[in-house]
Amino acid sequence: QVQLVESGGGLVQAGGSLRLSCAASGRIFSIGFMGWYRQAPGKQRELVATITNGGSTNYANSVKGRFTISRDDAKNTVYLQMNSLKPEDTALYYCNTQARITAFRAYDTYWGQGTQVTVSS
């Protein structure tokens, strides 16, 4: 009912930048919070950043000052600008959102398929 498609991942050298995008599509009445999570090999999935529909943001301590999350509600899209990338940022990055398909439904949680970010030293 709601699909999330991420893009923008890739291979970058340490100190470089990438911008991830995640577009939500399908039967959408409204979108609540949107966020990014990541999972490195052998590690648990962890929160990177979230943004509410009011624009309030939250970041993991490890990315504060380097990453910026933003959203374009007209496009149902969330972005993650990643600067000063480090090898330890290497992971599969997942988009996450809460959305509802009608005014009478509660919000459900949706995940994208993930986009790989690899930072070389």
How would you sum up this structure, described in words?
The protein starts with a strand and ends with a strand. The relative contact order is 0.32. The strands form 2 sheets. Strands 2, 4, 5, 6, 9, 10 and 11 form a 7-stranded mixed beta sheet that branches. The protein has a 4-stranded antiparallel beta sheet with strand order 1-3-8-7, with no helix packed on it. It has 121 residues and is mainly beta. It is built from no helices and 11 strands.
Find the count of extended strands (DSSP E, 2+ residues). Answer: 11
Order of helices and strands: EEEEEEEEEEE
Count of helical stretches: 0
Radius of gyration: 14 Å
Shape: elongated
Tell me the helix content: under 10%
Task: Estimate what percentage of residues fall within beta strands.
Answer: over 45%
Separation, N- and C-terminal Cα atoms: 40 Å
Weakly predicted, low-confidence segments: none
Structural class: mainly beta
Mean pLDDT: 96
Main sheet properties = 7 strands, mixed
